[in-house]
Specification:
The complex is a heterodimer of chains A (about 280) and B (about 170).
Chain A: H1 2-50, H2 58-70, E1 75-85, H3 86-94, E2 98-108, E3 113-127, E4 131-147, E5 158-177, E6 192-217, E7 220-235, E8 244-245, E9 249-250, E10 256-274, H4 278-282
Antiparallel strand pairs in A: 1-2, 1-10, 2-3, 3-4, 4-5, 5-6, 6-7, 7-10, 8-9
Helix pairs in contact in A: 1-2
Chain B: H1 2-17, E1 34-39, E2 53-57, E3 71-72, E4 76-79, E5 87-94, E6 105-121, E7 125-132, E8 138-142, E9 153-156, E10 160-161, E11 169-172
The chains are: A alpha+beta (about 280), B mainly beta (about 170).
Organism (chain B): Flavobacterium sandaracinum
InterPro entries (chain B): DUF6452
Keywords (chain B): Signal
Chain lengths: ~280, ~170
């Protein structure tokens, strides 16, 4: 488990890096191809027309016309993105100890900021060396994403850093346990069946999210995110511990946790906003 | 942006490598043993060394190992209690293995207690703590050969066996 988790992380992060690089190189190429011909065409066209007329006043006007030609190309679409965490769904197919689903959604507030939320339900049986328990519960995470990626033209990719506040209500059922005896003289280490249920548990935490969403086609996005969690509140059962919290995942000693999701989302556009090009005016 | 991704990568890798709570740390207090001290019957405040004491649990063929040996000549021993059930019986044989059979003396003590199971951690699971029966914590009998018991008096110092930092039982001989 330890080794698989470690290699899993490294694979994820490797993917993350290749994604990031793949996205940053393509737009530069596209920009180079698309912007240059437009400018040169319009310039030559305009100058051809202008030449016969008076020279002095029109020199200043002509660049302004070029601006208004090129600017409307770029519009930002605003809307709601809804989708599903594929990892949780597929894990339920091959892991008989796990059932889970997570809906994800975000709403674009401004050019850079997205209101984001995840809503999920998990039913997981954890089989450790010494304890076997089942955790059932639902969770909600609400927060924001900040898109740090500068898109060219009509691209809508997202490389984001964000935060969430997560809250989960759940119950734990201790299926079986073992007594730890450092001096096993009597050679008794039976697995003791328990079935004790701990109800009404809850926990809340803060997540830092790093994510990527890429537009695959039309309005469909594929993305994944990596999360670092820190518990804020944790209502623990008597004589047991919240070793797993839905949404937070496995708890470690120092109240930290990690998570990730792999999402497919559909973007529902609501309105469009033209981009006011400030940079061109500065020139 | 790349710097942020690298930061996330570094943090995530550090997280993935600190999964030490899979193994129960030996320093974690888990199921305690019964700590017995041997004292001089004539001078009750002074610890007295036993000579070649062998302690065998009921139904067991080998004795408890003290520093790798089955006999001890110290004044303090720690013996485990059964976590399943509420009674553990031990035979205490003094001068075990001595060539003179007259010196070999075996006494039997049965400990009666109640147990409680407490959660420790993911890696250690649960531990058992014991409470010696308040009215009848032990039963002291001699082995089949009815000679004089070598143990003259048994005193229960602590009824609650929760850790190994204190002497729970004092045996005077």
């Amino acid at each position: 488990m330890k080794h698989t988790l470690r290699s899993f992380f490294s694979i994820c992060l490797l993917l993350l890096l290749t994604f990031a690089q793949a996205q940053e190189t393509t737009p530069k190429g596209e920009q180079a191809k698309q912007t240059k011909p437009v400018n040169s065409d319009s310039k030559t066209a305009k100058t051809n027309q202008i030449i016969p007329e008076a020279q002095l006043p029109l020199v200043e006007i002509s660049p302004k016309i070029i601006k208004s030609d090129s600017i409307p190309l770029k519009t930002d679409r605003y809307g709601v993105r809804v989708g599903l965490d594929l990892y949780k769904v597929t894990r339920g197919l091959y892991d008989s100890n796990y059932k889970g689903i997570e809906f994800v959604g975000d709403y674009r507030l401004t050019k850079k900021y997205f209101l984001a939320a995840e809503l999920g339900n998990e039913n997981k049986t954890t089989d450790d060396d010494r304890v076997n328990f089942t955790t059932k519960g639902s969770y909600l995470k609400v927060g924001f994403d900040y898109n740090a990626y500068e898109n060219w033209l009509d691209m809508e990719n997202i490389i984001s850093i964000g935060m969430r506040y997560g809250f989960s209500t759940f119950n734990q059922q201790l299926n079986s346990y073992r007594i730890y005896n450092a001096n096993p003289y009597f050679a008794e280490t039976p697995i003791i069946p328990s079935g004790k249920k701990f109800d009404g548990l809850s926990a809340s935490w803060i997540e830092v999210v790093a994510g990527i969403k890429a537009k695959v086609f039309d309005n469909v996005f594929v993305g994944f995110s990596l999360r670092l969690n820190r518990l804020v509140t944790n209502k623990e059962p008597d004589n047991f511990s919240n070793l797993y919290i839905p949404g937070f995942n496995r708890t470690y000693d120092g109240s930290f946790g990690v998570g990730f999701n792999y999402t497919v989302t559909y973007f529902v556009p609501i309105y469009k906003k033209k981009i006011v090009a400030k940079k061109v005016e500065e020139k | 942006m790349k710097k942020i991704i690298l930061l996330v990568l570094a943090v995530a890798l550090s997280f993935s490598s600190c999964e030490k709570d899979d193994i129960c740390d030996a320093n974690t207090p888990t199921t305690p043993r019964l700590v017995i001290g041997f004292y001089d019957f004539l001078n009750p405040s002074v610890l007295k060394n036993v000579s070649n004491l062998k302690v065998v649990g009921e139904g067991m063929t080998t004795g408890i190992l003290f520093n790798g040996a089955e006999t001890t000549s110290g004044s303090m021993i720690s013996i485990p209690l059964k976590t399943v059930g509420t009674t553990t019986t031990y035979s205490f044989t003094l001068n075990s293995g001595n060539s003179n059979p007259a010196l070999v003396d075996e006494d039997i003590i049965r400990f009666d207690y109640s147990t409680q199971e407490l959660f420790v951690s993911r890696a250690c699971g649960y531990k058992t703590i014991f409470t010696l029966d308040p009215t009848n914590p032990y039963t002291h009998t001699d082995a089949t050969a009815a000679n004089v018991k070598w143990i003259k008096f048994i005193s229960v110092e602590k009824n609650n066996i929760e850790n190994e930092n204190e002497t729970h039982i004092k045996i005077f001989f």
